[in-house]
């Protein structure tokens, strides 16, 4: 039977996944959150014509011919405007950021002047508007400058502040319950028994959840028994998780009972098994309002499934409009053989050729248990199903490692 393609599987995971409700957060807590509404400016910036330099505000007509002496009639530091009107052959001492006094249209920088008492001698002429930032140069009241669905980086937060917003509407963080399964698993840092494996995947998955903008809920480690799994699934439902991620027990052995027990809880199965390596036994379905991703236990398989399916799902629940696929193109740094029906994600090193082009060289060993190779890798080379053999120098698709 033909297995589901990666694209089709992703489409099914994202089907019907729409943005969660919004909440308000203070600017200082808004970093990396996703905006829930378009944001219009409450202010025009700059609010008035402003000096861009320290110097003298003058009338351009007075300084056409230089040198010329002007009478200094006042001073305008930032935050304190000069309230009078500046007349013929007059100047006001001005500083960067101060409003341009009435009657002036130009700034002469102080390096181009000599001052003596209340007289300034202007040595260089200056055109109209020189060193003046016009009112509204940056933006105007009512301009929509930040869009719903964008992730708030430091620059977006600075702009929101400049627009005079102290609080922003953002999407609630998707809650993602993460459950490791397996009798062999023990937490890191303990003294492992003779048959123990250290549980690693849950830590990686929780990190992926956080990076994607969700809140991980740690459900710990379930034993390979119906009872233990059942208790954990009940806990997931009670925790009001939007997504449940299980790790391990997804394959065909008689201890791989995750799917069975999920079904006993009412799982509506979306799919099981996809044409992908690593990650073939991926399970997807719904348990009430909760989406369930049953990931294979091999550490690299679960991280790749997390990156390819869980991260886009979290982004969809955040209403992200700017999702980055992370995909680009490179040239192969070594030969690769013909591919079978599974789309391969080969861990690879990136380098540059002499012309500066990107080169991706897959590691020789690609076993899905090898986490150290995942950390050594800079990218995945994507080999589509049934791709013919390819040689060093041939173009290839790559997914840059971003976790
Ligand atoms: N007869 C077949 N056997 C297998 C098939 C198949 O199609 N036919 N598929 C293989 C593939 S592909 C994968 S991937 C694995 C996935 O199996 P499971 O999801 O059932 O995973 P487990 O058996 O529970 O564990 C596999 C491996 O990973 C270790 N593991 C599990 N959880 C964790 C964790 N949280 N942290 C660290 N390591 C973990 C576990 O100890 C095992 O070594 O099935 C193949 N078999
Ligand atoms: O698909 Mo499994 O994830 O190859 O090892």
TrEMBL record:
<feature type="domain" description="MoaB/Mog">
    <location>
        <begin position="177"/>
        <end position="316"/>
    </location>
</feature>
<dbReference type="GO" id="GO:0061599">
    <property type="term" value="F:molybdopterin molybdotransferase activity"/>
</dbReference>
<keyword id="KW-0500">Molybdenum</keyword>
<dbReference type="Pfam" id="PF00994">
    <property type="entry name" value="MoCF_biosynth"/>
</dbReference>
<comment type="pathway">
    <text>Cofactor biosynthesis; molybdopterin biosynthesis.</text>
</comment>
<keyword id="KW-0479">Metal-binding</keyword>
<comment type="function">
    <text>Catalyzes the insertion of molybdate into adenylated molybdopterin with the concomitant release of AMP.</text>
</comment>
<dbReference type="InterPro" id="IPR036688">
    <property type="entry name" value="MoeA_C_domain_IV_sf"/>
</dbReference>
<dbReference type="InterPro" id="IPR001453">
    <property type="entry name" value="MoaB/Mog_dom"/>
</dbReference>
<dbReference type="GO" id="GO:0046872">
    <property type="term" value="F:metal ion binding"/>
</dbReference>
<keyword id="KW-0808">Transferase</keyword>
<dbReference type="InterPro" id="IPR005111">
    <property type="entry name" value="MoeA_C_domain_IV"/>
</dbReference>
<dbReference type="Pfam" id="PF03454">
    <property type="entry name" value="MoeA_C"/>
</dbReference>
<dbReference type="InterPro" id="IPR038987">
    <property type="entry name" value="MoeA-like"/>
</dbReference>
<dbReference type="GO" id="GO:0005829">
    <property type="term" value="C:cytosol"/>
</dbReference>
<dbReference type="Pfam" id="PF03453">
    <property type="entry name" value="MoeA_N"/>
</dbReference>
<dbReference type="InterPro" id="IPR008284">
    <property type="entry name" value="MoCF_biosynth_CS"/>
</dbReference>
<protein>
    <recommendedName>
        <fullName>Molybdopterin molybdenumtransferase</fullName>
        <ecNumber>2.10.1.1</ecNumber>
    </recommendedName>
</protein>
<dbReference type="InterPro" id="IPR036135">
    <property type="entry name" value="MoeA_linker/N_sf"/>
</dbReference>
<comment type="similarity">
    <text>Belongs to the MoeA family.</text>
</comment>
<dbReference type="GO" id="GO:0006777">
    <property type="term" value="P:Mo-molybdopterin cofactor biosynthetic process"/>
</dbReference>
<dbReference type="InterPro" id="IPR036425">
    <property type="entry name" value="MoaB/Mog-like_dom_sf"/>
</dbReference>
<keyword id="KW-0460">Magnesium</keyword>
<dbReference type="InterPro" id="IPR005110">
    <property type="entry name" value="MoeA_linker/N"/>
</dbReference>
<keyword id="KW-0501">Molybdenum cofactor biosynthesis</keyword>
